[in-house]
Amino acid sequence: MVRLITHNLLACHAKGCTTNNFPLQFKDAEIEHREAEFNPDFIRGLLPKIEWKPLVDTTKMLGDTLLPDERPEMMDDDLLKMLHHVLLELHIEEGQMICPNCSHVYPISNGIPNMLLSEHEIA
């Protein structure tokens, strides 16, 4: 399923696409909210792996403006809950992810992204 925790790790790997290929941009995204159990320790453990600016830009593009533009130095419970919400509770069910560099389209259907490349697109 496409959640922002996954999206924050995905980049385009089409042949020759090596720069400006992250983050993939959502188009026609259908979002579903699904509650998930809050685990502050899990969210704290994710923090070093999260690309903050791409996450914030993506959440804004999807209409969610909870996160501050700059990564706070201190993560209180309220901020951890906001991160939990955007990373684990927002599910992209349908739509597309598009590479900002080469414009390759990765379709999303039933919450599953198709990241497979055709033989001529493989680096």
Give the second-level CATH assignment, the architecture: Single Sheet
Number of helices: 4
CATH fold-level label? N-terminal domain of TfIIb
Q: How does the helix and strand content classify structurally?
A: alpha+beta
Average residue-wise pLDDT? 94
Order of helices and strands: EHEHHHEEE
Shape: globular
Major sheet summary line = 5 strands, antiparallel
Strand proportion, as a percent range, falls in 15-25%
Name of the CATH class: Mainly Beta
Indicate the low-confidence ranges by residue numbers.
Answer: none
What gyration radius follows from the Cα positions, in whole Å?
A: 15 Å
Overall tally of structural domains: 1
Helical residue percent band: 25-40%
* Termini Cα gap: 25 Å
Compute the number of strand runs: 5
Using brief descriptors, characterize the structure shown.
123 residues; alpha+beta; N-terminal domain of TfIIb; five-stranded antiparallel β-sheet; 4 helices; 28% helix; globular; Trm112-like; Trm112; Trm112p-domain-containing protein; protein heterodimerization activity
Structure notes:
The chain has 123 residues and is of the alpha+beta class. It has a single domain (2-117), classed as N-terminal domain of TfIIb (Single Sheet). Helix content is 28%, strand content 22%. Strands 1, 2, 3, 4 and 5 form a five-stranded antiparallel β-sheet that branches. A hairpin with a 6-residue loop joins strand 3 and strand 4. Belongs to the TRM112 family. Interacts with TRM9. It comes from Pleurotus ostreatus.
